[in-house]
Amino acid sequence: MRFSRQMKTVEEALQALLDKLTTLDEEQVQIKEAYGRILAHDIVATCDMPPFDRSPLDGFAVRAADTVHATVEQPVRLRVVETVAAGKVPIIPLEAGCATRIMTGAMMPAGADAVIMFEQTENPGEISEVVGVKRVMRAGENISRRGEEIAMGSVVAKAGERINAGTLAILATFGYTQVSVIRKPRVGLLSTGIELVGIEEPLTPGKIRNSNTTMLSALIAEAGGIPVQYPVLPDDLAGAKEKLTAYIQEVDMLVSSGGVSVGDYDVIASLVDDPDVELLFNRIAMRPGSPTTSLLLSGKPVLALSGNPGACFVGFELFARPALQRQGGQPIVSHRSIKAKLGISYEKPCPYPRYLRGRLATKDGLLLAQPDFNDKAGNLGTLKNSECLIVIPAGGKGKQAGELVEVIVHAAPSWREEV
């Protein structure tokens, strides 16, 4: 099968991989460690929110019936019986002709059914025993009722959601000091090829530094996984299989770079003929990275990406990131695809869909996708600028500037304004 590969589309290959993956088990973490994690269970409100009737503004709690004759010219005068700050409990119930000076967030006193803001009373900055109310109030006006925002027992965050700062505020509000989250996938990371040297080593003729492992480690962490780095694989098949079999017992997935083509020393490509592995795909209708390969070893996924940095980068975004989303418990696994106008014509024909690295920009209020044109698979000089993958369909003459194209976003866009 190394030399007679069956072609799959990107969508077919990704589905073949996702079909073999399941969500990992859960673990408990402290709320301070929960940012960015995926919720394992729904979170429910442990109390009403607000937990009591309260004032949403600074003013006076009153009985609406006492204000029916109030006007700007003839304010209704009410006796102020107490002042209630946020966090304090009112002591004196309101009777006819009385008012309570009340601060934002403070509990409503018994008997009050409206709050008038300071600005709608006489001498609003003055603290006195009597207040002049200058307008008619309706019962219920300017009151936040108990449970009107969230009722106790309501689901406030759903399983599968990524915990962000707002989620943490909700957890804290309802007293969750710990939360159940999906365990982060442990991803074994390795490269193939005797031509590779460590980034701290000097270059010698025929050697290159191993940039892919450093890049993939960052991408794995960004996607919610835990990278576990292993030594470079040996170039002999028996030795490589032995190492892979040992490594995969320690992780949830293996991601490798290099060794997927049909060269004499491409060990991952040769491994697909081993009876102990289940091949998922080893040829994809895409450029760059068509030899990208995936298989199951000991029942766990191995994703083998191209050794060329650009193709390796594209392969990770198209396959590894969604795979980590599935293992990490996200209920919807997909590429973040949008439409944008192509900023510059791309006329290079290709028999397969081409995934161009590029960036997003705006011009006259329209979204543009700008390819970097450094699209040779081995080129890495513009990787740091990549925000998206621009999909150029197969065949034809590419796409002209101004045409709509599919764009897979993989980084926070900088939204430069084109001139």
Automatic annotation (TrEMBL):
The keyword Transferase applies. Its cofactor is Mg(2+). GO terms for molecular function: metal ion binding; molybdopterin molybdotransferase activity. It catalyses: adenylyl-molybdopterin + molybdate = Mo-molybdopterin + AMP + H(+). Pathway: Cofactor biosynthesis; molybdopterin biosynthesis. GO terms for cellular component: cytosol. Belongs to the MoeA family. PANTHER family: GEPHYRIN, MOLYBDOPTERIN BIOSYNTHESIS PROTEIN. This is Molybdopterin molybdenumtransferase. The lineage of its organism: Bacteria, Bacillati, Bacillota, Bacilli, Bacillales.
